[in-house]
Amino acid sequence: MSMIKRKEGFTLLEAVLAVAILSIGLLGLVLLFMNSTKANQAAKLRLLANEIVSSEIEQIKTLGYVNLSDTNLTQVPFNYQNSLTGFPLEYQFPGINTNCDAPYNYCLYKGVDKEIEVKGEVKHYFYTIKLSVEERHLDYPTLRRLRIEIFWMDKNFLVSSEIIFMVERK
Q1: Calpha distance 107→130 (Å, rounded)
Q2: Sign of the CA dihedral 32, 35, 39, 40?
């Protein structure tokens, strides 16, 4: 009885299977990295939008109830406009509702160009703000309700965020 000695090492089939399994694992990691990069960019755009809205709300609240008017909001430092038609194309995103629906008495618009320097290169992020003002909220003469919406493009999709806040008579 003769014994055939088996050589040590891997067969071609074992090597191919190992490479295939390793490739599938690496492909999963690459896809995970790409999705996390996209999510990071979307989060950065939303964070910038929240920063802009927060700043706008604080500026508007400095006007107070009595001085809150479309005339005052279209002046420096607020620079709102009565319509989007005079804006550069960077701010005229398709899909923005330009109607001023009840219960709001008037709507104003503002374009914001947020510049951020990344590795010596300046990037521009364009946002459009729509401010809707209700003169007398719930027939209560000391409150004005405002809705601020901010719009921006993420790839080819219009994204928006909205905050409703009150300005009271002091």
Answers
A1: 7
A2: positive
Q: Are strands 157-168 and 143-154 parallel, antiparallel or unpaired?
A: antiparallel
Q: Is the pLDDT of residue 1 over 60?
A: no
Unique residue bearing structure tokens 């002091």: 170
- Inform me whether the pLDDT recorded for 77 exceeds 90: no
What contacts 54, CB < 8 A, 6 or more positions away? none
Q: Which amino acid, one-letter code, is at 69? A: S
Q: What is the pTM of this model?
A: 0.80
- As given in the structure block, the two tokens for residue 100 are 């001023």
Single-letter residue type at 73: L
DSSP-derived secondary structure for 97-162: -----TT-SEEEEEEEEEEEEETTEEEEEEEEEEEEEESSGGG-TTEEEEEEEEEEEETTEEEEEE
